[in-house]
Specification:
Domain Periplasmic binding protein: 52-305
InterPro entries: Peripla_BP_I (IPR028082), SBP_2_dom (IPR025997)
CATH architecture of the largest domain: 3-Layer(aba) Sandwich
Number of domains: 2
Structural class: alpha/beta
CATH superfamily of the largest domain: Response regulator
Distance between the termini: 58 Å
Number of strands: 11
Largest sheet: 6 strands, parallel
Order of helices and strands: HEHEHEHEEHEHEHEHEHEHEHH
Signal peptide: 1-33
Keywords: Signal
Helix content: 40-55%
Shape: elongated
Radius of gyration: 24 Å
Subcellular location: Cell envelope
Strand content: 15-25%
CATH topology of the largest domain: Rossmann fold
Strand order of the largest sheet: 2-1-3-4-5-11
């Protein structure tokens, strides 16, 4: 029996076929459009670049360790084939050139720890325009022409530290502010976050403040000079872990009585805190932000919808839980940072925000 196909049936068949094609396209190349920058014929295994501003601080070395470990896991899953690592040695112009080399090599993803919040905008935008997944973490750039930014809230970091110190001092006293390098967004943003809190407490007097590398030795040297010039200090608003350790060592060497101090999860600082019975508060910039950035870039390349900004919650370290951190100290370098555990389940949860 001959089947009669009506015009309406034919139209429905064509439309159904088109829908199948659309689903097929979405399952392959078009799905990549869910995340910013992703376009072109990019297929696993992917080539990943890690454009670091400098690798000397232990925090950076530990961060690189989480990145290489994550790449190893993704290699086992057949999602990554190689990792290119560069070190700009603190020079933003060098970092621009190194990112340009990654673009020229047509890498699939570039992970960036920025040496300048503004200088890298153009080269990062160029990478995005060429369909490369660009994920920026910790020290952020101004441009949003990238796939994702991943960070804790640096303003909240500074605000919370200032609130704790002011409360500990009873709302009055003379303090010194210790900052990381000027021009690095994570350092500048922590300081900006602290300012409204300081403004609201006029009986807290900032004697002076300083900027140093996130390393103990220069921080200790800077604080030693400040101790000679300032005989009366009631508290230290330190906006970095190595800065806090350097400050405590400077006070100790000068025979000065320790004062309330804020800080971070640097192992040396936490050990000094416990050893000397310091009045302290700390939070954490997890080193695994680097690993999460690699994972997010690969997820974007695989067609997943990665948020433009991934906010990682800030933990609090105080007298109630410091022992738990110190119990893990042996797993981290003596001059390193004791960071919280991470895994794929945590990463998926953060990317699902």
């Amino acid at each position: 029996m001959k089947r009669i196909v009506s015009k309406s049936m034919l139209v429905r068949a064509v439309m159904a076929g088109a829908a199948v094609v659309a689903v097929s396209l979405t399952a392959s190349g078009s799905a990549n459009a869910l995340s910013n920058c992703i376009k072109g014929d990019r297929k696993a295994p992917y080539s990943v670049g890690w454009a670091n501003i400098y690798s000397v601080p232990t925090w950076m070395k530990q961060t690189e360790g989480t990145i290489t470990a994550e790449v190893d896991e993704l290699k086992k899953a057949g999602l990554v084939k190689d990792l290119m690592i560069t070190d700009a040695q603190g020079n933003a112009q060098t970092q621009i050139q190194q990112i340009q080399s990654m673009i020229d090599a047509n890498l699939d993803a570039i992970i960036v720890e920025a040496g300048s919040s503004t200088a890298l905008d153009r080269v990062i935008s160029d990478a995005c325009a060429k369909g490369i997944a660009v994920v920026n973490f910790d020290s952020l750039v101004d441009t949003n022409n990238l796939t994702a930014k991943i960070n804790t809230d640096s303003n909240e970091w500074g605000s919370s530290a200032a609130k704790w110190l002011i409360e500990k001092l009873g709302g009055k006293g003379k303090i010194i502010v210790m900052n990381g390098p000027a021009g690095i967004s994570v350092s500048d943003d922590r300081r900006k976050g602290a300012q409204p809190v300081l403004d609201a407490n006029p009986d807290i007097k900032i004697i002076t403040e300083t900027n140093t590398e996130y390393n103990v030795a220069p921080a200790q040297e800077a604080m030693t000079s400040l101790l000679f010039a300032n005989p009366e200090i009631d508290g230290i608003l330190s906006l970095g872990g190595a800065l806090s350790a350097g400050s405590v060592l400077a006070f100790d060497r000068q025979g000065r009585e320790q004062v309330p101090i804020t800080g971070e999860n640097a192992r040396q600082f936490l050990e000094l805190w416990k050893e000397k019975g310091l009045k302290s508060w700390a939070t954490m910039q997890p080193n695994w932000l680097g690993a999460l950035s690699v994972y997010a870039a690969v997820q974007a390349l695989e067609g997943k919808d990665v948020p433009a900004f991934v906010k990682v919650p800030l933990p609090v370290i105080d007298d109630s839980n410091i022992d738990g951190y110190l119990a893990k100290a042996g797993d981290f370098p003596a001059d390193g940072y004791i960071y919280s555990p991470y895994d794929k389940a945590l990463f998926d949860k953060l990317l699902a925000q």
